[in-house]
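Saturday, quiet lab. Running sequence design on the structure tokens for the scaffold JK sent over.
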């Protein structure tokens, strides 16, 4: 016959780790049915449903009231943010301002893009053989997926004459400076594109 518990003589001869292992096994055997029972009798079932306005409707119902869906249903609206990548600017104040309404979440990788450009152009200055360029004055342009917002009040000056790469660097520095100084206004324009 299989003995489940050791007698006193056996118990006294066991080492401390063996005794602790036996006690732990005994406790686990006692608690196993409670663990299995908890898996089959949930107290609350939570359903997450996203409706067409990107709002999450959370519904809770207890097991006893499983047949009544609407009577004892607790509904809360939680805004599900849309993920965007911010291209060319990592201004933390702009990111916080964009995420403040909880409609946008900035991440490094997303198919939704927010980027900045300028409305001016870069052209060859003088003789085409020397490859010197100049840029025309323009305004900040905010690009959000298919939407464009041109901010005429945020002016990017002309640069040059210089090589094209230097002019592009100067334009990018000016765009970054404008975004850093006007992050609340730019956040508002980005939200206009998204809403």
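Result came back. Writing it out in full:
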């Amino acid at each position: 016959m299989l003995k489940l518990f050791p007698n006193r003589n056996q118990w006294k001869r066991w080492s401390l780790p063996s005794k602790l292992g036996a006690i732990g096994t005994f406790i686990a055997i006692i608690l196993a049915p409670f663990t299995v029972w908890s898996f089959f009798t949930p107290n609350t079932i939570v359903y997450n449903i996203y409706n067409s306005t990107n709002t999450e409707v959370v519904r809770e119902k207890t097991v006893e009231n499983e047949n009544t869906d609407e009577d004892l249903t607790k509904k809360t609206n939680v805004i599900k943010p849309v993920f965007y990548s911010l291209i060319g600017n990592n201004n933390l104040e702009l990111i916080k301002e964009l995420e403040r309404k909880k409609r946008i979440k900035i991440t490094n990788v997303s198919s939704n893009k927010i980027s900045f450009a300028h409305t001016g152009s870069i052209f060859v200055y003088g003789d085409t053989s020397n490859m010197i360029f100049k840029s025309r004055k323009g305004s900040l342009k905010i690009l959000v997926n298919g939407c464009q917002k041109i901010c005429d009040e945020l002016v990017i000056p002309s640069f040059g004459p210089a090589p094209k790469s230097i002019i592009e660097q100067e334009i990018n520095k000016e765009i970054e400076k404008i975004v850093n100084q006007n992050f609340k206004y730019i956040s508002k324009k980005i939200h206009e594109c998204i809403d």
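Notes for JK: Residues 44-79 form one domain. The chain has two domains: 44-79, 82-194. Ask whether to fix the surface positions before the next round.
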